[in-house]
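[audit] Reproducing an earlier prediction to check determinism. Same input, same settings, fresh worker. If the tokens differ from the archived copy the diff job will pick it up downstream; this log only records the rerun itself.
[audit] input (362 residues):
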Amino acid sequence: MKTTNRGPRKAVLELTSSEQEQLERWARRPKSAQALALRSRIVLECAGGTSNLEVARHLGVSAATVGKWRRRFVMSRLDGLVDDPRPGRPRTVMDEQVEEVIVKTLESSPPDGGTHWTTRQMAKKVGLSQSTVSRIWRAFGLAPHRVEHWKLSRDALIVEKVRDVVGLYLDPPERALVLCVDDKSQNQALDRTAPIPPMLPGTPARITHDYERNGTSSLFAAIDIASGKVIGSLQAHHRAVEFKRFLQRIDREVPAELEVHLILDNYATHTTPAVKRWLLAHPRFVLHFIPTGSSWLNLVEHWFAELTSRKLKRGTHRSVRELNADIPAWLENWNENPRPLNWTKTADQILDTFSNLSSTNQ
């Protein structure tokens, strides 16, 4: 019995030498124009005689995607791989100019040997105005002047610690209290050298740049992840003696029938022999250490940031006594209307991020 092939016959896809060169240039883009690079690879492989299914498997796309760009190229050649223009006023900046700005921003260094491009440098290099360069950067989410800092923990037990701490956040044990603990040391009692005038319409509050230092105080704090309430204690120092005293306060304030799980960093004052002996005598206390260099994993740090921005940054204190009265008053107000700090990311999501950062940094 004679068999027949079903489905429409694919149009022959042949490339001219100029098309081959242009597609290869587009396909080699290491960072920018990745959609165009993928379309170019699809056409190049199809032109080499590879079937749509094989191209799809090799490039990790669907067969429908391969068929779409194969047809677009056969119908419109190179123009078929470029996104259709949007309606509106005729463009004054062409695709090639936009591409040049993006490619130079991502793949080259400025001529003065600096670490990043400025709009003035880029405008001079590509022959566009600074405002045009700025609009292109904004449209593609590029901000060469900005940089975000991060630190990758080198803790040998990072996986175990992340899973342990995040497990407590997402699924806390029953009949137990989970507290994030740390100390905010060296809180300064600062007095401005001139009175702070009040805010007026059109005029923000103004604070003198210089100030007088009137001593420091250390704040130990433990935030309950379930309720958001904070146990706080001000001390003159932040040694193991003061940390043990703070543990005793937690022991007094937490109902005796509950276990106490403390999330904290592996700071030396948290693991001294005196502290270990106290913990052995109080077995309901269980310590969970975050990885080194991962203070962001301790939710009490978010509360410290709130305290700094809402109270300490603009505060005026003529003595440590004033500071030690002001902080507990703010803490008391917080506990009247606490806000739980909910954790959402899983341990796997965090560890995947670590893995991506490590591979990028290599």
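[audit] rerun output stored. Observation attached for the diff report: The chain has three domains: 17-81, 95-139, 158-196+210-356.
[audit] end
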